[in-house]
Every structure is written in C-alpha cells, then in structure tokens.
Design a protein that fits this description.
Distance between the termini: 23 Å
CATH architecture of the largest domain: 3-Layer(aba) Sandwich
CATH class of the largest domain: Alpha Beta
Radius of gyration: 20 Å
Number of domains: 3
Order of helices and strands: EEHEHEEEEEHHHEHEHEH
Number of helices: 8
Shape: globular
Number of strands: 11
Oligomer: single chain
Length: 326
C-alpha cells in the first residue's frame, strides 16, 4: 500500500471546511418547495408514496440503476417491487400512465420531450448532477449530497409539502457522523487504527436497510459554496480528461461527480490504483446493465484534491496501462 495520502474514499468530518460560507447562498434557490431527507432513497421513496397513494402506477427505472438502491426503496414503499420496470431506452416505456425516473448520469442530460406529457410523471434523479437541479422539467427533482461532501442531506424540489417536525437522527445518520469524526482523527494522527472508521462506515451502510423514511433540516444546504465546489471539480476533471483523451480511453460523456471511464480490465486497474493509495469506486456493480457493471470505473475529482493529486492519478493510470499492455 502507498504511504502517500489517500485519494478517494469516504469524507472525513471537515474535508470541505474551506467551502463553507458564513452567509447563506442561493445556489438552490427555487420557486418550488424544498424538503430535506437523510438519503436519496428516503427522498425518492417519499416522492413515490405521494403519487402512488392516489394511483397504482408502474414505475420505470433506468436499466443501470443500482439493485441495492432499489431494494432500499422497496423496503420503504410497500408493493412497489411488483410495479417496478427497467428501461434501457425510452422506446421501452409503455404509452400508458406511469412514473418515470430520469437519471442525470454523472452530469446534466435533458429529459426527452417524449416523456413530458400528461400521461407520465417524471422524477429527475440529480444525485450525480448539481447542475441538473437548475434545469428541472419534470414534476419534481431530488438529489443526495453525501457523495459530494460530508453532508448527509438529500432534498426534493417540487410541488409537495411536508410540515411535520424533524425526528431524532436515524441509526444510519448517527453512525455515519461517528465514522466521519473517527476518520478526521485518523487524518490528524495516522497511528490511530484505520479499521475503526472503516468499520463504522460499514455499520452505517448496513443501517441503510430500513423501512423508515428519515427527514432532515435543509439549513446546512445554504452554507456551502456549491459553485466553488463545482469549479474545483471541473478543474480536477480537466487534468484527467486531457490525459485520457490523448490516450484514447473510453470516457463517459459527462464528468460532474467523477471522471468515469470504461475499461475491459477494470478490476485489475482498480487494484493497481489502490496499491498507490488511490481509491476509485465501482458504481452499479449490481446493475442490470451488464456492460457498465463490468467495465465502469469512477475516478475521484472532488474538492479535497488539487492538481498535484490529479497528476498522481495520471501517473498511476499511465503505469497501469503500460503494465497491462494498453
């Protein structure tokens, strides 16, 4: 394992401290209502419950949607599993009343006009694209911010209301915050046992398997400079993209949350990066999209890192390609 600082992995407690603001900003300003939740699965489940209580509609999810996420949603929305459908193209959506989940895959992708009609209720999944929140055309949009920084908050933007007071934080939320604090302590003193925060993060992920829907205050939303966060991510992404494009590596079209690449030897490259202290996650490992499940690799570009860190990733990739003969 590399002795250099880690790149990637879960956020520690104060990783994005320099992006906090003393005065509120209006990045998420909207004429519609904003409702806060702990996770994206909570947010989408609540949206589905709002619509399904009036009509028993089929719900279409993109083919690449993570099976684990779906299972969490099925726990929270009784009876949904039998009405869940997948689509790889909009031609696979039947021309009958339905709820369509439109996914902004690692960046803003306009929803097709064919979906925007009186028969379909479109919910825009903006978990991978902050920019998409500014371009909403469906009935509602939602996002989760836990992959963007150390903020366990998801929001729904739409014509809905929720007036109940916030309950105590869930087991997931409490455990996740403990894990972030432990990781922060480990960063200050690497002699602290690394397994302490890794085990806590694993405990938090297991606690996500619950039928409860947890709401959360949106107050913290306005106290981060989201434009600055996006700018830093774009700067970091450009360094990786320049290298990948020159070397003819297949890159997913947009790169807002990560720089996503497709590699036939994905698992070997991921292992090589980890040996160099670079932790590139694999998304949709259990996706119904068999190609993406086997080839997709997400390279970290977030605001914790600078150009020197990106050059480390470039060097590790270059060495990995040479070793594999690519």
């Amino acid at each position: 394992m590399s002795t250099e600082k880690y790149i990637g992995g879960a956020f520690a407690k104060d990783d994005s401290k320099s992006f906090r603001t003393k005065t509120p900003n209006d990045f998420f300003q909207t004429q519609q209502n904003i409702i806060g939740f702990e996770t994206g699965a909570d947010a989408l489940s609540w949206l589905l419950l709002m619509e399904l209580k009036a009509h028993d509609l089929p719900v279409y999810f993109p083919e690449h949607y993570c099976e684990e996420t779906l299972e969490r949603i099925w726990l929270k929305v009784p009876g949904l599993k039998k009405n869940t459908h997948r689509y790889a193209s909009i031609q696979e959506i039947q021309p009958f009343p339905a709820i369509i989940i439109w996914n902004h895959f690692n960046g803003y992708h306009p929803a097709p006009t064919e979906l925007l009609n009186e028969k379909h209720i479109v919910f825009e999944d903006c978990v991978q694209s902050l920019e998409a929140m500014h371009q909403q055309v469906g009935k509602a949009s939602f996002t989760s911010l836990r992959k963007w920084l150390e903020l366990d908050l998801a929001i729904v933007i739409g014509p809905y209301e929720h007036h109940s007071s916030f309950a105590e934080p869930s087991e997931y939320y409490r455990t996740k915050k403990e894990a972030e604090q432990l990781k922060q302590e480990w960063k200050r003193n690497p002699s602290v046992d690394e397994s302490a925060f890794l085990d806590k993060f694993a405990d938090a992920e297991r606690a996500l398997q619950t039928a409860e829907i947890s709401f959360h205050s949106t107050e913290e939303l306005e106290h981060y400079d989201w434009s600055k966060i996006l700018e830093k991510r774009r700067e970091n992404a450009k360094i990786l993209l320049d290298f990948l494009n020159v070397n003819g590596i297949e890159v997913i079209e947009t790169s807002e949350l990560f720089v996503m690449i497709e590699l036939e030897n994905r698992d070997d490259m991921r292992k090589h990066l980890a040996q160099n202290g670079i932790f590139a996650p694999v998304h949709w490992l259990d996706s119904s999209d068999k190609r993406l499940a086997k080839t997709l690799l997400s390279l970290p570009i977030d605001q914790r890192y600078d150009s020197e860190d990106m050059q480390r990733i470039v060097s590790a990739l270059e060495n990995g390609f040479k070793a594999s003969g690519l």
